[in-house]
Design brief:
Number of helices: 12
Largest sheet: 7 strands, mixed
Mean pLDDT: 96
Order of helices and strands: EEEHEEHHEEEEHHEHEHEHEHEHEHEHE
Helix content: 25-40%
Strand content: 25-35%
Bound molecules: zinc ion
Radius of gyration: 20 Å
Structural class: alpha/beta
Length: 372
């Protein structure tokens, strides 16, 4: 039995989202039907909307959903109707990479997250009688109801603030995961964050949790730097400051232990690499253009510097999202300072505010007023 639900359908590259009625499959093996309460909007949604994903349209995007389980398919263990869940990225939990504790690099990661289909190539939603891309990160959460998989759903307490927790599934997990899971930053170490949007600010908050001695934040936007300071940055720099690299190297007497690139720009990645000390690690989180190239001095690499790319901050959502939920409850991960809520109907306003940098993390509320 399919279920008629409302979804934000994207008909073609850069088109506005249009709320339409679509038909959602009944949950199959391992799947959960989730009534979505809220969904964050992540930069990857905007990149796919702009055609960066070699993605055929029409499609339903969205990959930071949170809601309540309505029904479960065969073979589902550990979830039942009424459970509150935060949805994250899909991994098979069975391949060699997953078995080694790195589900972000799952062998089925592309098929299960970026293809817009289920890992087996089928589509959970139909629009006007035709299947459409609707398995983005095994959720396509710009919809009132979705089919997630038990492997990308994380149970949280019933009654948890789902509107706040939704963006933990991707953006906040990515920034915080880089610091706490990938770098494993120790008290007294130093971090530099390039680009303080949702991902970079999550990294700043996580670095404070980990006890960083200095947290350098770099951005083009002075207001965002102010917020970064409020959230734990000890030093802030405008990105176009001419002596930026030299100043950071001087202040740190040779460089930071860890630098994070959250922009996806070759120039910024090179800056981040240059402020990293020998034996330090520079991490790439930003999504670059498909053909972006970077040039790195080989001698610096010889001196033990590491340059590493990361998906989802190397975090396993099943372990890491509960940790972030606890940190938030303790007031140590104040994501409410980054979020702005919008009714689902206002999705195009939310996208506009994100693109014009007036909103850091827009969150859509799927069920307000009379809408169901
Ligand atoms: Zn896997
Ligand atoms: Zn994302």
């Amino acid at each position: 039995m399919t279920l008629p639900v409302r979804a934000a359908v994207l008909r073609e590259v850069n088109a506005p989202f249009v709320l339409e009625e679509v038909e959602l499959d009944a949950p199959r093996q391992g799947e959960l039907r989730v009534r979505v309460h809220a969904s964050g909007i992540c930069h990857t949604d905007l990149s796919y909307r702009a055609g960066q994903g070699r993605f055929a349209f029409p499609a339903v995007l969205g990959h930071e959903g949170a809601g309540v389980v309505e029904s479960v398919g065969e073979g589902v263990a550990g979830f039942e109707p009424g459970d509150a869940v935060v949805l994250s990225y899909y991994s098979c939990r069975a391949c060699g990479t997953c078995a080694h504790g790195q589900p972000a690099y799952c062998e089925q990661g592309y098929a299960g997250n970026f293809s817009g289909a289920r890992p087996d190539g089928t589509y959970p939603m139909r629009w006007r009688g035709e299947p459409i891309r609707s398995g983005f990160f095994h959720q396509s959460s710009f919809a009132t109801h979705v089919l997630a998989h038990q492997h990308n759903a994380v149970k949280v307490a019933r009654g948890a603030p789902l509107e706040l927790l939704a963006p933990l599934g991707c953006g906040f997990q990515t920034g915080a995961g880089a610091v706490l899971e990938s770098f494993r930053l120790q008290p007294g170490q130093r971090l530099a964050v390039f680009g303080v949007g949702a991902v970079g600010l999550a990294a700043v908050m996580a670095a404070r949790v980990a006890g960083a001695a200095s947290i350098f934040a770099v951005d083009l936007d002075a207001r965002r730097l102010e917020l970064a300071r409020e959230l734990g940055a000890t030093d802030t720099f405008l990105a176009d400051e001419p002596e930026l690299t030299r100043t950071v190297l001087k202040k740190t007497r040779g460089g930071v232990d860890f630098a994070l690139e959250c922009v996806g720009s070759p120039k910024v990645l090179r800056q981040a690499f240059d402020v990293t000390r020998p034996l330090g690690t520079c991490g790439l989180l930003g999504l670059p253009g498909a053909d972006a190239q970077v040039s790195i001095p080989m001698t610096a690499l010889l001196f033990g510097k590491r340059l590493v790319g990361m998906l989802e901050g190397d975090a396993d959502p099943k372990r890491f999202i509960p940790r972030l939920v606890s940190l938030h409850a303790e007031g140590r991960f104040p994501i409410e300072k980054l979020s702005r809520s919008y009714d689902f109907e206002a999705i195009n306003d939310a996208v506009h505010d994100m693109e014009s940098r007036t909103a850091i993390k827009p969150v859509l509320r799927m069920h307000t007023g009379a809408a169901r």
